[in-house]
């Protein structure tokens, strides 16, 4: 028997397409060929189960070997083998899937057949200049065949030399792919793609240390676990089995998982797998793409986006489903209704497992909350259905480490922390050290303070404000304590306009000048017992800036300098003393300027009164120019007065001390400014 022919393809350019574009990564050839060998072995098992195989099954292992000198890689199996007619049908007619035909015939045996597309074999041409097949069919009286092709539509089919049932695929590696002629490279690929195939995969012999070197033993080096944990029933596994499998998946991970979810569905789709919640050490270093996707125990990808909801790509583990549609490379997921059902099921199973743990083992749930929190928040932010399920077990934590559900915390705080508008105000800190003073003020009022220092807290807070009725979150240092939760109307500042401007100028002369921070002065009547000077940061702008750090689309806010408000308590004795000192030392020098300003202000007011009595179109250009000149002169006089007061403030030690104390209380004083504060403190003492 000898035949030459052309492979049945629609275009002679099919081989360049296969070689360059069919598969996303060239190393995929090994997975495809080993998968085909496993298919052949599984088919033989199905025939034996159906009583159609004469003789013994024997050892069904798949062997991989290479010869660096001959530049060949060989994949051998003892499976179903092929006749010349089957080679014609399944190899020479590209994309005719023998697996699908076989599956249809033996569907009741539920045997796992991997190849669905008939193109997997041709991945070998991505790395080979020539490919050979030596095969002998299981069929009684079959003759061995030899097929050879050099990466073009022409092939040779002749009598082969194989004497045992099964198939050898021999790849003659081309010059561009010699990297694969390495034991380490092949070991890495086999471990990646074939670690859990259902048929033993053998690569060389096991080694032992002898006479100062590793030497081969007589025992086959089987690289795969044919019965991984996810293929077993949950009732067959103990906690230690799940933990051992976790370390089998991630041998470089020494932490144990928090807990796991065993997926086992056979209707309306087939889905098995185990998902692990990893222990989170640093929430900013979470790893994605740690879930491995398999199809009948054949590794497909670690990019499971589309099957697993995005927020659950933070989980670790394995998903195996023959019902997930893949393209010919098995590397990219197609979007269809079945995938959506699987995604929804996984999301629901995760939410149900968390809810079960919360209800039945709350203390354990709270103990693990620091690691679980980022998964729950990410899910609530990403998926409305998950939010509805998770809101029951979403926890907030106060600065004493106590955990509350949202309903529990509402009950705890609504009596004391509801403002005069009926809004429930939840105070929080994201840095208990730098905001310690503000926290202590809140605690002195009997208020509870939450600790929100996670990477997603600022987004979670914004979502909860939209979802929860009449509830808002306010950072504990964003306003004086009496304004954070306003119970009554705020007391008015009882200073004249001249006094207020003088007091502001007094402190503006001592405010830090920093590139990334802006400081402004405001006056509040906070009572003699409150601090003389407070520094606050407005909730809205600060929150927008925090969100911008995590959300590139908000770069505008991220580029703005941080804004701080220096609040002067006009009722504090030290502030009143400084104002009195300014009146005594500075105001006598300003009498002439103030008289000129008074006169100029009267002129401005008179000009404005004349213009306000007219319609805009009736005001002449000369009148507008006159008013501009008058207001410009007024501003010039106000500036001169302000500069004189600022000079006094800049030299007044008490002003500098009060500003620096407020900065220090907010963690904003460091370096040279801190050293100057220490020297001044000693001087004042």
UniProtKB/TrEMBL annotation:
PANTHER family: HEAT SHOCK PROTEIN 90 FAMILY MEMBER
UniProt keyword list: ATP-binding, Chaperone, Coiled coil, Nucleotide-binding
CDD domains reported for this sequence: HATPase_Hsp90-like
Organism whose genome encodes this protein: Porphyromonas pasteri
Domain of life, per lineage: Bacteria
Family to which the UniProt record says this protein belongs: Belongs to the heat shock protein 90 family.
Entry coiled-coil feature ranges: 590-647
Name of this protein: Chaperone protein htpG
């Amino acid at each position: 028997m000898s035949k030459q022919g052309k492979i049945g393809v629609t275009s002679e350019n099919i081989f360049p397409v296969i070689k360059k574009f069919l598969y996303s990564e060239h190393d995929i050839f090994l997975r495809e060929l080993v998968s085909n060998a496993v298919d052949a072995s599984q088919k033989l098992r199905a025939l034996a189960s159906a009583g159609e195989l004469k003789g013994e099954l024997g050892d069904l292992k798949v062997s991989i070997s290479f010869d660096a000198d001959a530049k060949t890689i060989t994949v051998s199996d003892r499976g179903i083998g092929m006749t010349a007619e089957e080679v014609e049908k399944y190899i020479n007619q590209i994309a005719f899937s023998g697996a699908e035909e076989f599956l249809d015939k033996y569907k009741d045996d539920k045997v796992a057949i991997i190849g669905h597309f008939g193109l997997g074999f041709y991945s070998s041409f991505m790395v080979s200049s020539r490919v050979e097949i030596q095969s002998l069919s299981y069929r009684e009286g079959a003759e061995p065949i030899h097929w050879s092709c050099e990466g073009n539509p022409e092939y040779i089919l002749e009598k082969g030399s194989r004497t045992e049932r099964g198939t050898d695929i021999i790849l003659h590696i081309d010059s561009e792919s010699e990297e694969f002629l390495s034991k380490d490279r092949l070991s890495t690929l086999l471990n990646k793609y074939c670690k859990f195939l259902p048929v033993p995969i053998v690569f060389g012999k096991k080694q032992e240390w002898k006479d100062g070197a590793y030497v081969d033993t007589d025992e086959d080096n089987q690289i795969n676990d044919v019965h991984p944990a996810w293929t077993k029933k949950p009732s067959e596994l103990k906690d230690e089995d799940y933990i051992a499998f976790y370390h089998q998946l991630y041998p470089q991970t020494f932490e144990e998982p928090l807990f796991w979810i065993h997926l086992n569905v056979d209707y309306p789709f087939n889905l098995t797998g185990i998902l692990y919640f990893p222990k989170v050490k640093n929430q900013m270093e979470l790893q994605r793409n740690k879930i491995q996707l398999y199809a009948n125990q054949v590794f497909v990808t670690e990019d499971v986006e589309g099957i697993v909801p995005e927020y659950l790509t933070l989980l670790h583990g394995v998903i195996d489903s023959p019902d997930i549609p893949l393209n010919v490379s098995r590397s990219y997921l197609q979007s269809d209704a079945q995938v959506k059902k699987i995604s929804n099921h996984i999301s629901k199973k995760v939410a149900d497992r968390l809810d079960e743990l919360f209800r039945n083992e709350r203390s354990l749930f709270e103990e693990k909350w620091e690691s679980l929190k980022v998964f729950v928040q990410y899910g609530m932010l990403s998926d409305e259905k998950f939010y509805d399920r998770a809101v029951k077990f979403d926890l907030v934590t106060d600065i004493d480490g106590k955990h509350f559900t949202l309903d529990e915390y509402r009950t705890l705080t609504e009596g004391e922390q509801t403002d005069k508008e009926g809004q429930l105000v939840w105070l929080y800190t994201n840095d208990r050290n730098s905001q310690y003073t503000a926290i202590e003020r809140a605690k002195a009022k009997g208020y509870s303070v939450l600790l929100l220092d996670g990477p997603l807290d600022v987004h979670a807070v914004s979502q909860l404000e939209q979802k929860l009725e009449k509830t808002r979150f306010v950072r504990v240092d964003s306003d004086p304590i009496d304004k954070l939760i306003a119970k009554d109307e705020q007391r008015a500042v009882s200073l004249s306009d001249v006094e207020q401007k003088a007091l502001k100028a007094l402190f503006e002369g001592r405010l830090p000048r920093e590139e990334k921070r802006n400081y402004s002065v405001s006056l509040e009547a906070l009572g003699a017992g409150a601090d003389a000077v407070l520094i606050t940061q407005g909730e809205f702008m600060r929150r927008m800036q925090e969100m911008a750090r995590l959300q590139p689309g908000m770069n505008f806010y991220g580029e703005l300098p941080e804004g701080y408000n220096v609040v002067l308590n006009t009722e504090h004795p030290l502030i009143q003393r400084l104002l009195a000192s300014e009146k005594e030392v500075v105001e006598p020098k300003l009498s002439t300027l103030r008289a000129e300003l008074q006169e100029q202000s009267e002129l401005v007011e008179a000009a404005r009164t004349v213009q306000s009595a007219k319609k805009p179109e009736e005001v002449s250009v000369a009148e507008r120019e006159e008013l501009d000149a008058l207001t410009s002169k007024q501003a010039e006089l106000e500036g001169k007065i302000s500069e004189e007061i600022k000079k006094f403030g800049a030299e007044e030690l008490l002003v500098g001390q009060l500003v620096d104390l407020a900065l220090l209380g907010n963690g904003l004083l460091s370096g040279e400014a801190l050293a100057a504060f220490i020297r001044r403190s000693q001087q004042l003492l």
